[in-house]
Amino acid sequence: MPEHDPTHADRLSAYQRARAAEQAARDDAVRVVERWNAALAVGRGALWSPTIRAAILAGMPWLDVYCPGCRTCRALDVRTIDRHPLASVGSLVLGLRCSWCGGAAPMPTIAGLHALPPSAIAKSVPLAGG
Ligand SMILES: [Zn+2]
After folding, report:
1. Which residues fall within 8 angstroms of residue 75, CB to CB, at 6 or more apart?
2. CA 103 to ligand 1 center in whole angstroms
3. Which residue among 33, 69, 109, 124 has its CA within the 20 to 30 Å range from the CA of 18?
4. What are 74's strand-pairing partners?
């Protein structure tokens, strides 16, 4: 009777379970972020926002922030922000001030989460003059 090696088989299935759970978490995160981006696009994003963890898991860590004062958009990399991963990305604008507008800066608004900084996406698209 050949000796069975349960350790190896157990480890393999544990690995596969972990991989599957990881993939499921990523899929969930992508759905959450996409739902939020869609809600923002139709002006319904103010009720909730994804967590920093969801943004990173979804592979969309670039938070597009809009300053109503000078009408510019800037991208924030949520991976570089020292906050709890379960903090919502919406809470990141609290205390955030546009450096161009200085002390009179209004609170920025959030325009969405992206895989790449919007400036990289829109590199060839000139900004509309106001
Ligand atoms: Zn500004």
Report:
1. 62, 63, 64, 65, 114, 117, 118, 119
2. 10
3. 33
4. 65
For the stretch 50-95, pLDDT in tens is 999 999 999 999 999 989 999 988 888 999 989 999 999 999 888 7
CB within 5 A of ion ligand 1: which residues? Answer: 67, 69-70, 98, 100-101
- The span from the CA of 99 to the CA of 101, in Å, is 6
**Helix ranges (DSSP H) in 1-130:** 6-41, 52-57, 118-121
Please count the residues of the chain: 130
Both tokens of residue 96? Answer: 């955030």
The 8-class DSSP code of residue 3 comes to P
* Residues forming beta bridges with residue 23, ordered by sequence position: none
CA-wise closest residue to 91 among 43, 28, 34, 46: 46
CA distance 49 to 31: 12
Report the alpha-carbon distance of residue 89 to residue 71 in Å, rounded. Answer: 20
pTM, entire model:
0.77
Cα gap 20→62, rounded to integer Å: 26
